[in-house]
Specification:
The protein is mainly alpha-helical. It folds into three domains: 1-46 and 138-324, Growth Hormone, Chain: A, CATH 1.20.1250.20; 50-119, no CATH class; 327-529, Up-down Bundle (Growth Hormone, Chain: A), CATH 1.20.1250. The chain is 65% helix and 2% strand.
Length: 530
């Protein structure tokens, strides 16, 4: 009986059928990048807000004040009497009642100068000029509540982590395309609920669920594409990353055109419902069907692939070799039971963690260094395009391992140098920082490909999902590490990033080279990789 790779060569390793499926599934990269980075725009800090004095709303209505009038009566006394207070996180400890004067509401406290009036912390009584522009103004994530914005991104990454375990396992047991479609439906529904969440608690609950399903769409689409093409075409997985980058570049345009966070949330969530149409055009992975002892269904799909590719399968292809490895429910022990599998798994887990922590850290750093957020975010996305092109140029010439190691080391060195460059040479600091972003983007994209190629079919989706769960752990830690360390010294996070990246670059040199090698079908195949 012929092997699956022999049948695939006969049917066409990257013909018209695979190109169509590949292009359709690539769109998932765009919507996943929206979810991945949307907090930068959903959580924009409002420029103009202040703490309202009790009774100010009623007095404002009686006196016919505008918001600007109310702000002046509230903030100006603080600025004149206590220059250290901006009126955002504390207010005068007074109450304006019906006896207050419209012209001078503080006149009744005439025996005290504004500087001598007591101050008190503000609690849930903020006024925003644009109350629905972001989740910060919607749920009062300012002052003592600012940490809750970091929490919302950590919760999303916790959803990614949960999705990697649960939906990665489900995709190996119940099929790639079924889990992909259910995940797309889940992302869309949860995204709508997030947009209309009446409170922050409900917001983070469904943001978490959106992360769970979002990870399901991203991982399964990547595995499907990798499993239906030949070994020489597996770099198409890198091209999927280009669509992720396109999403990063499109997102600031959406945020610029839509003034409210609810509108942005709906715009990035609703497209997921369109992916449900793939039920009629994207088949189940024939490799997966073979591992589940469903050779007839796999052969039927291979005949369909051959037909669309203008090929014809020989009559003796009436049956395909089925993996002799006993199929069982995958577990973490399967990934560490044998020496090479164990080494690969531990190194890949560290690589995922490092790539995600540095990548997300550098993205969020854009929001704290100042400048035009929309333009700088677009440019930071555009920088990632050369990364994919460099990978496509080098990965077939030098293999996977060397570019993987060099990209990590370059990212680490660039982060370290950026830390000590003077602020009065901004072009040089930006150039070196851009080189670091380019390097870690290359590393992040290569780890997807290498991870897929180093696991057997029976464990591939579970293995990729489990290892990439460390990516989500890095995402959970990134906002807290970045903002807490930056509060001590703005460049301190870059020092941590540089150490992590260089160590990762050295470790990946211990992985086997997979250039031009057929995808392993069993654990024994992995152990034979040198």
């Amino acid at each position: 009986m012929p092997s699956f790779d022999e049948v695939l060569k006969e049917a066409g390793e990257f013909g018209r059928f695979q190109k169509r499926v590949f292009f359709l599934l690539c769109q998932t990269g765009i919507t996943f990048s929206f979810l991945f980075a949307s907090v930068v725009f959903l959580g924009q800090a409002p420029d103009n807000y202040w703490c309202r004095i009790p009774g100010a709303a009623e007095l404002s209505e009686r006196c016919g004040w505008t918001l600007e009038d109310e702000r002046n009566f509230t903030i100006l006394p603080l600025l004149l009497g206590n220059g250290s207070s901006s009126g955002k996180c504390e207010r005068l400890d007074v109450v304006w009642d019906t006896s207050a004067s419209c012209a001078s509401p503080l006149a009744r406290y005439g025996n005290h100068s504004a500087g001598n009036l007591p101050l008190t912390a503000c609690h849930d009584n903020w006024v925003y000029k644009q109350p629905h522009s972001s989740i910060v103004s919607e749920y009062n994530l300012v002052c003592g509540n600012v940490w809750m914005l970091d929490l919302s991104q950590a919760i999303l990454n916790l959803g990614f982590l949960t999705g990697a375990f649960t939906l990665g396992y489900a995709a190996d047991r119940y099929g790639r395309i079924l889990i992909y479609l259910l995940s797309c439906l889940g992302v869309g529904i949860c995204g709508i609920i997030v947009a209309f969440a009446p409170n922050f608690t409900l917001f983070v609950i469904f943001r978490f669920l959106q992360g769970v399903f979002g990870k399901g769409t991203w991982m399964t689409c990547y595995v499907i594409v990798t499993e239906i093409v030949g070994s020489d075409q597996r770099i198409v997985g890198i091209v999927i990353q280009i669509f992720f980058t396109l999403g990063i570049m499109i997102l600031p345009g959406i945020a610029y055109l839509i003034p409210t966070w609810q509108g942005i949330q709906l715009a990035i969530s609703l497209p997921n419902f369109l992916f449900l149409l793939y039920y009629w055009v994207v088949p189940e992975s024939p490799r997966w069907l073979l591992t589940r002892k469903k050779g007839e269904k796999a052969l039927k799909i291979m005949h369909n692939i051959a037909k669309h590719n203008g090929k014809y399968l020989s009559p003796h292809y009436s049956e395909i070799t089925i993996s002799n490895e006993e199929v069982s429910n995958p577990s973490f022990l399967d990934l560490v039971r044998t020496p090479r599998m164990r080494r690969n798994t531990l190194i890949l887990m560290y690589a995922w963690f490092t790539s995600a922590l540095i990548y997300q850290g550098l993205i969020m750093r854009i929001g704290i260094v100042g400048g035009n957020l929309f333009l700088e975010f677009f440019i930071s996305g555009a920088v990632e395009l050369p990364a994919a092109l460099l990978i496509l140029v080098t990965i077939d010439r030098f293999g996977r391992r060397l570019p993987f190691a060099i990209s990590n080391i370059v990212a680490g060195i660039a982060c370290f140098i950026t830390t000590f460059l003077p602020e009065d040479i901004p072009w040089l600091k930006t150039t070196v920082a851009t080189l670091g972003r380019l390097g870690i983007t290359m590393a992040f994209e290569i780890v997807y490909l290498v991870n897929t190629e180093l696991y057997p079919t029976t464990l591939r989706n579970f293995g990729v999902s489990l290892c990439s769960s460390l990516c989500d752990l890095g995402g959970i830690i990134a906002p807290f590490l970045l903002f807490r360390l930056a509060a001590i010294w703005l460049e301190l996070p870059l020092i941590i990033f540089s150490i992590l990246a260089v160590v990762c670059g050295l470790l990946v040199l211990l992985l086997p080279e997979t250039k031009g090698i057929s995808l392993p079908e069993t654990v024994e195949d992995v152990e034979q990789l040198s």
